[in-house]
Amino acid sequence: MPSASWCVKNLLEVSARYLEEKGIETPRLDAEVLLAHQLDLDRITLYLNFDQPLTDEELTGYRSLIRRRAAREPLQYITGIQEFWSLEMAVCPDVLIPRPETEILVEQAIVLARGLEREREKPLQILELGTGSGAIAIALAKEMPDTAIRATDISRSALRVALENAVTHGVSDRITFISGDLFKPFAGDELTTDLIVSNPPYVSKSEWRVLASEVRDHEPVEALDGGEDGMDFLEKIISGAMGFLNPGGWVVLEMAPHQTRKALDLMERTGAWDQKDRIRDYSGRYRVVKGRRR
User: Fold this and answer.
1) CA distances (Å), origin 105, targets 16, 101, 196, 289
2) pLDDT (tens digit, 9 = 90+) per residue, 265-283?
3) Domain that holds residue 167
4) Which of 30, 50, 140, 239 could form a disulfide with 9 if both were Cys (CB 3.0 to 4.6 A apart)?
5) pTM of the model
């Protein structure tokens, strides 16, 4: 039965004010997204139905969603969806929520892979370390259908989410998901690859203390914690990549802006990289480091 006192318009107004009082940065947007999710509508349709009354069941469900957001649960975990590379990815607390800046990593990987394709006579091999939701591997598979991609993660729960997303987007036959920590699943194998990509954990101890509660209290710690200075996994990947990259192959890594110089210095000390560079994100901050094996 419709609740006569609550239509879409006034419910959004009240909910947005409530979220604002709770310190939510985008209260109106979040209120709209959650109501559209509750009613199984897109936001445009929501605007076209401002006078629509809600049933008691819909109202109860929506209030529950608003309470979760007010408690700082990420919007993406509440709706179960995050857009990445114009693709809808299923997300849950088992996986890191894909960020827009990670699309810089994908852009760089595609440019480098297409350059390698012109040099190679056989399909490219790509390895992603720490795939999480599978967003990076899936975006690469969609853009480069002739590549073979391996994607690892230490979390079996994350791998289940990644496989679900790969099936949804029709690329599960071209991505092999592997359980394990970084390069460990390939120890003793003669695996070689043309491109290694990763968005590894890189939050330092000092940064951890000032993270937004949405991140610190809800997203998986193992996908964020990079050790004392945030470089633990980045150092392992840079040093370990040489044992798996074909000559002329590339490693492409996402990290915090202040870590990019450290990563380039590490590459310089190893002497194994004949090209290396760092790339800015959309806000003008260094975000991605790439290096080519001699």
Assistant:
1) 34, 8, 11, 9
2) 999 998 889 899 999 999 9
3) 92-293
4) 50
5) 0.92
